[in-house]
Write a structure and sequence with these properties.
EC 1.1.1.88; four-stranded antiparallel β-sheet; hydroxymethylglutaryl-CoA reductase (NADH) activity; binds 3-hydroxy-3-methylglutaryl-coenzyme A; alpha+beta; 3-hydroxy-3-methylglutaryl coenzyme A reductase; oxidoreductase; 429 residues; single chain; HMG_CoA_Rdtase_cat_sf; 3 domains; Alpha-Beta Plaits; 3-hydroxy-3-methylglutaryl-coenzyme A Reductase, Chain A, domain 2; binds NADPH dihydro-nicotinamide-adenine-dinucleotide phosphate; 48% helix
């Protein structure tokens, strides 16, 4: 892929933007014409995806530009309804690339399946029995998904926890078997569920209890991805704010989120502003990613900031984000939704690990975009200016009137629907 650094992309008409992306991807004739389909999701395909289909629900698809991650260029597809998010991600990616780009990594990618057993006559004995038969249980799981083994994946380990052992209620006492499976490039929910269901009868026999739930855990702590960036203050200068002031404002903002759940929820919403659009565009399950990310933010016992911002010895701003990433590049909707296929192609992604690394990098960029704005001019200046067009459309503006009314509202600093309606009436009289 050619460079994803395209200055002034947003000032060009949509058709020209598409051409620039196709050029960036270095696609040839046939591939080019098929790339941006006129009907993003045909009703017939939608009807096979979910139930009771009566239509489809399109979202704007934008491209996060300027991303350099582990020295590779990425044009990042982002499906989102909120203004200023894509601009902000591109803005920070531009700064970070001048500082050497994001460094991202991920370790093992194991998804977790849970089997709940209740009513064991002796929970400690039941635990020992399961652990004794670990290899056999792993084999049962793997036999339930032979194609995964052929790909080099499969269950790697299994362990057992006893919950509420000393409580009086038989409802609350339980034994939980965890299976840890490498699901290769799939998110793996269906795979894990298949394996957990296959192992359950044997678990019942071993524990002399009764199995109820057999399901994936979305707390994917064995599938973590992390991103970091190191930015010299000289790259952070914004208007009248020097780089050191911006850096310090970002660190103060982080400390606020680290200490106060009221702020942490909003701070983390800002991170998910970047993460969700990529997860959605690539056809992944954003509820799974959201649930895992917020739970991980509470792993210390108090809900806190997902990211960490600090200053290194040289005075650089250092950002870090580590999150569970239960995503895939195959399976689920990724192979069914034509736009998800397009998004993965645009990213030129080779594996689920690589996609996870891109996603956390975008989350980190998005977080800095919001904190930089909040710690300097305030969020309204950049965000509301871009939101103004949406307000104008909601008030009934069409065609050229959208830009005229948006600009008028920005000029008078009155970006609200009442004002937009007044202006629509004024201009259409
Ligand atoms: C909006 C900016 C980026 C302007 O910031 P700016 O400094 O005016 O940008 P610039 O004109 O210097 O442009 C720099 C680059 O940004 C990009 N860029 C710049 N403008 C556009 C545009 N119109 N469309 C697309 N891309 C744009 C573009 O890549 C451009 O490079 P160039 O192309 O010029 O070489 C900045 O004000 C900003 O980042 N604001 C924050 C916006 C934000 O965070 N929005 C999220 C919604 S608010 C929220 O939900 C979360 C929150 C805030 O509550 C979270 C929290 O509290 O932590
Ligand atoms: N709690 C949760 O989050 C839950 C989520 N879900 C949903 O489950 C779906 C994800 O489940 P998942 O199991 O990933 O999807 P699938 O059931 O689609 O399984 C993945 C498929 O990808 C195929 N595949 C092709 N190439 C590869 C490769 N390189 N690596 C791995 N698999 C490959 C496998 O084919 P083959 O058959 O040849 O092996 C397999 O059929 C999502 O839609 C999610 O919304 C469902 C239940 C619960």
């Amino acid at each position: 892929m050619k460079t994803s650094r395209i200055s002034g992309f947003y000032r060009k008409p949509v058709e020209e933007r598409k051409e620039l992306i196709l050029d960036m991807m270095e696609l040839n004739g046939g591939e080019r014409s098929a790339f941006f389909p006129t009907e993003p999701l045909e009703l017939e395909i939608a009807d096979h995806m979910v139930e009771n289909v009566v239509g489809t629900f399109p979202l704007p698809l934008g491209v996060g530009l300027n991303f350099l991650i582990n020295d590779k260029e990425y044009a990042v597809p982002m499906a989102i309804e909120e203004a200023s998010v894509i601009a902000s991600a591109s803005h920070i990616a531009k700064i970070v690339r001048d500082a050497g780009g994001f460094k991202a990594s991920s370790g093992e990618r194991l998804m977790i399946g849970q089997i709940q057993v209740v009513g064991c006559p002796d929970f400690e004995e039941a635990k020992a029995a399961v652990l004794n038969e670990k290899s056999e249980l792993i084999e049962i799981c793997n036999d339930a998904y032979p194609s995964l083994i052929q790909r080099g994946g499969g269950v790697r380990d299994l362990d057992v926890r006893i919950l509420n052992e000393h409580e009086d209620s038989d409802y609350s006492k339980m034994l939980i078997v965890h299976i840890y499976a490498d699901t290769c490039d799939a998110m793996g929910a269906n795979m894990i569920n298949t394996m957990a269901e296959a192992a359950a009868p044997r678990v019942e026999l071993l524990t002399k209890g009764k199995v109820y739930l057999r399901i994936l855990s979305n707390y994917a702590v064995k599938s973590l991805a992390r991103a970091t960036c190191i930015i010299p203050p000289s790259l952070l200068k914004t208007g009248d704010f020097d780089g050191e002031a911006v850096r310090d404002g970002v660190i103060h903002a982080y400390e606020f989120a680290a200490s106060d759940p009221f702020r942490a929820v909003t701070h983390n919403k800002g991170i998910m502003n970047g993460i969700d659009p990529v997860v959605i565009a690539t056809g992944n399950d954003w509820r799974a990613v959201e649930a895992g990310a917020h739970a991980y933010a509470a792993r210390s016992g108090q809900y806190s900031s997902m990211s960490v911002w600090s200053k290194d010895e040289a005075g650089n701003l250092v950002g870090e984000l580590e999150l569970p990433m239960s995503i895939g590049t195959v399976g689920g909707a990724t192979r069914v939704h034509p736009m998800a296929q397009m998004a993965l192609k645009m990213l030129d992604i080779k594996s689920a690990s690589e996609l996870a690394q891109v996603i956390v990098s975008v989350g980190l960029a998005q977080n800095l975009g919001a904190l930089k704005a909040l710690a300097t001019d305030g969020i309204q200046k950049g965000h509301m200016a871009l939101h103004a067009r949406s307000v104008a459309v909601a008030a009934g503006a069409t065609g050229e009137l959208i830009e005229i009314i948006a600009e008028k509202m920005i000029e008078t600093k009155e970006i609200r629907s009442g004002k937009a309606k007044e202006l629509v009436e004024e201009y259409t009289l």
